[in-house]
């Protein structure tokens, strides 16, 4: 029998359509896909202890529920992807490990059901150091930083110096040698202006201890030279009478002839006399002043 080309083409189309129909009829239903995956998960050694729900629509599989760990989750997803008829897999599984970690995370401030954590042990505080008080009457021996004179110095003029000897209180170091001091010229009178006397009075006003400045009060030391050459040194404002004249002799150089310290509360007054009987205190002369009021040092300055 002769088959025309047109008929041959129609037969081919019919055969193709039949093949497609047979192929479509062989694809598992969504119900079958879901059940097969569920059964395989329930017996799998890794994923079987999981609580997994499987659904399928048009071959797209969705996994929901929980697995005991990440390995079980991955195995359940693998089983779904290998299922015949499954075209896609959406994994919405959560592991019990992740849930436990979320439960163990810090909770907001108020959690009355949880036992309060024990309070940290309180360390015993060390006793705070007490301020160090240098009593009135303590001697401060200094070396002046510039020359002073009854002829050239003026009342209110400031002079500087440094502590020559350290000061201790009850065996504790209070002020180190070299501490900077500041003083003032209380009065300066050239010889011949008042009853022919040359007079120079000094006091200390400040001392710096370990970088901290402190205001101090000392007795005023008054060194007087009378017209006939008699030399006196009087400590006023609470100091004892008496004193010693030290320093360069007439015409001596800077710091020449530094003398010995006087004792028993008397101030150490430096000086040299020129021919016109003026009070001269060369630079670097050692002078001793007496505190007329206590000096309190904070612990940080000890």
Characterization of this structure:
- The chain has 302 residues and is an alpha+beta fold.
- It folds into 2 domains: 29-100, Histidine-containing Protein, Chain: A, CATH 3.30.1340; 132-301, Lipocalin (Beta Barrel).
- 19% of the residues lie in helices and 35% in strands.
- It has 4 helices and 19 strands.
- It has helices at 5-26, 30-43, 70-82, 96-104; strands at 51-57, 60-67, 88-95, 132-134, 139-144, 148-149, 158-163, 167-169, 172-175, 180-194, 197-209, 212-215, 220-225, 231-236, 244-246, 268-270, 280-281, 286-290, 295-297.
- Strands 5, 7, 10, 11, 12, 13, 14 and 18 form an 8-stranded antiparallel beta sheet that branches.
- A hairpin with a 2-residue loop joins strand 8 and strand 9.
């Amino acid at each position: 029998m002769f088959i025309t080309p047109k008929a041959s083409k129609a037969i081919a189309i019919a055969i193709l359509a039949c093949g497609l129909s047979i192929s479509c009829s062989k694809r598992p239903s969504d119900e079958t896909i879901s059940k097969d995956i569920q059964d395989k998960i329930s017996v799998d050694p890794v994923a079987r202890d999981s609580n997994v729900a499987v659904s399928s629509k048009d071959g797209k599989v969705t996994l929901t529920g929980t697995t005991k760990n990440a390995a079980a989750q991955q195995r359940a997803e693998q089983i779904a992807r290998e299922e015949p008829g499954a075209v896609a897999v959406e994994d919405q599984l959560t592991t019990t490990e992740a849930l436990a970690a979320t439960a163990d995370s810090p909770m907001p401030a108020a959690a009355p059901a949880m036992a309060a954590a024990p309070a940290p042990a309180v360390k015993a505080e060390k006793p705070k150091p007490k301020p160090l008080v240098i009593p009135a009457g303590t001697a401060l021996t200094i070396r002046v930083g510039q020359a002073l004179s009854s002829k050239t110095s003026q009342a209110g003029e400031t002079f500087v110096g440094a502590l020559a000897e350290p000061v201790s209180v009850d065996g504790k170091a209070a002020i180190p040698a070299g501490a900077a001091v500041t003083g003032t010229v209380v009065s300066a009178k050239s010889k011949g202006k008042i009853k022919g006397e040359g007079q120079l009075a000094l006091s200390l006003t400040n001392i710096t201890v370990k970088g901290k400045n402190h205001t101090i009060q000392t007795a005023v030391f008054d060194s007087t030279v009378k017209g006939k050459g008699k030399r006196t040194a009087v400590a006023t404002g609470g100091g004892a009478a008496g004193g010693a004249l030290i320093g360069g002799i007439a015409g001596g150089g800077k710091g020449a002839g530094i003398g010995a310290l006087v004792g028993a509360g008397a101030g150490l007054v430096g000086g040299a006399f020129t021919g016109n009987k003026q009070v001269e205190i060369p630079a670097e002369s050692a002078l001793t002043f007496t505190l007329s009021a206590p000096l309190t040092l904070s612990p940080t300055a000890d």
